[in-house]
Amino acid sequence: MNSEKLKGHILILITNILFAVNMPISKYLLPAHVPPEGLTIMRMAFACVMFWIVSLFTVKEKVPLKDLGMLFVCALCGVGINQGLFIVGLNRSSPVDASIIATAVPIFVLLLAVVILKEPITRKKSFGVFMGVSGGLLLVFSSTHATDSISSLDGDMMMIVSGLMYAIYLVLSKPLSLRYSSVTMMKWMFLFTTLTLVPFTFRHVLDAPAFHREVWDFTELGAIFYVLFGATFLPYLLIPMSLKRIRPTTVSMYNYVQPIVASFIAVMIGQDTLSWQKVLSAVLVFTGVYLVTQSKSREDMEKGKR
């Protein structure tokens, strides 16, 4: 592994740790401190302002109209729909469920690679997809039968769609990440997302209980700052930097770091509990991810024929 690939692995590892820590922190904020819609637009607007400020001190890159259109699509998939559904879904579910569902992203990425990049469908890949989907379905259906569960079917389904949108973003943004810096990509993506969401969500920020306290709660404010800076600005700065150096499939594989970190934190602070269904779901998803990512790519098969 050369130094550039190693840098890509380190960057995406840090990104997924930041996302994982965000799950229990966001769960703490929702909805008693900040409503999910308010937290979503705060993340978008904060990151937008930060990236445009940083862009003033970086090399200017001209983006043609065609690429701006693709950045708009990436913004909807990778930021707006992805983060919006994730926050609303997390409000109705649990950090452990969210982290397990996040590990299905590599499966989504590889399925998209079959459709878009014409990657071959092998037995190992097919069986891996089946196991991963089985794990996700077990998690979803177990939520509907646990009457005292803090998870819900619609919450889990929202996070599954959120994961699919993130996978689409990883595949579509790879070519753009090779042409533009992460700051250039993100300043446009977050601008598009903010302008799209502000008319529907700004009232939720004004009504947030966190901003109507007589005495400032610094734990509350610290949690909000982490979500805005540590779980939005920093990760979205690092993702394109990682995509420059390693493949989208490899990037998506690091999602399995999230359940390890998020579940540990959530259980330790009493936000969630582990059940045998969740453990089995995690095992199925992890095994599916491993099998899918270990299957041969089209490039490997073409090399084998030579």
SSE blueprint and pairings:
Elements: H1 3-29, H2 36-55, H3 65-91, H4 95-102, H5 105-116, H6 123-145, H7 153-179, H8 182-206, H9 218-243, H10 248-253, H11 257-268, H12 276-294, H13 298-305
Structure description:
With about 300 residues, the protein is mostly helical. The protein is about 80% helix and about 0% strand. The protein is built from 13 helices and no strands. α2 (about 35-55) crosses α9 (about 220-245), α3 packs antiparallel against α7 (about 155-180) and α8 (about 180-205) packs antiparallel against α9. InterPro entries: Diverse_Substrate_Transporter, EamA_dom, EmrE-like. It is a multi-pass membrane protein.
What keyword list fits this structure?
306 residues; mainly alpha; 0% strand
Question: What's a quick, concise take on this entry?
Answer:
With 306 residues, this protein is mainly α. It has helices at residues 3-29, 36-55, 65-91, 95-102, 105-116, 123-145, 153-179, 182-206, 218-243, 248-253, 257-268, 276-294, 298-305.
